[in-house]
TrEMBL record:
This is SecY-interacting protein Syd. It comes from Paenibacillus taichungensis. It comes from the Bacteria. SUPFAM superfamilies: SMI1/KNR4-like. Keywords: Cell inner membrane, Cell membrane, Membrane. GO terms for cellular component: cytoplasmic side of plasma membrane. It holds the Pfam family Syd.
Amino acid sequence: MKQELEDYFKRKYARWREYKNSFPMISWDEEVPSFMYVGEINNENYVQWKAIPKVEIYEFSEIRDEYNIELHPDIKEYFNSYWFLELTGRYEDYSVILEPVVPGMGLRDFYRNLKEYYHSHGNQPKYIPIGFESDGFIILVDNETGEVLIEDHERGTYEKIAENLAALIKEM
């Protein structure tokens, strides 16, 4: 997983250098620690950012305690590899937006999305939300197998799109 993330960021940086001659840019957020940003805020309130390898390890004890589940190792590795502000890209016909891992904000959004998903799906921990697709579908990891799926909540259907998170990220 860490290697796939590293390769993803290298590809992202190369595209941005070719397109804008900069690192990726994102809207400045005062809650994000300054070490995540590269350079100064521009006149449109955007700033460059760069992924940083993580040292701090999340144990996910809150999830273990509240839901009595152990997260799939791929999910743990995803959240424990890098700090990053955005992970987006194309995968087959999908425009994928995965959870960012932002220092100082912990897993706040991930926990909130998990809680909402858990309660809206009969308190079943089989699938773990890890992101979204631009058409509003939820991207999930099967917590038993590690497979990545897209859920169409309105139809109540699930479509497997990748063998695992690393395979998804590798192709984005």
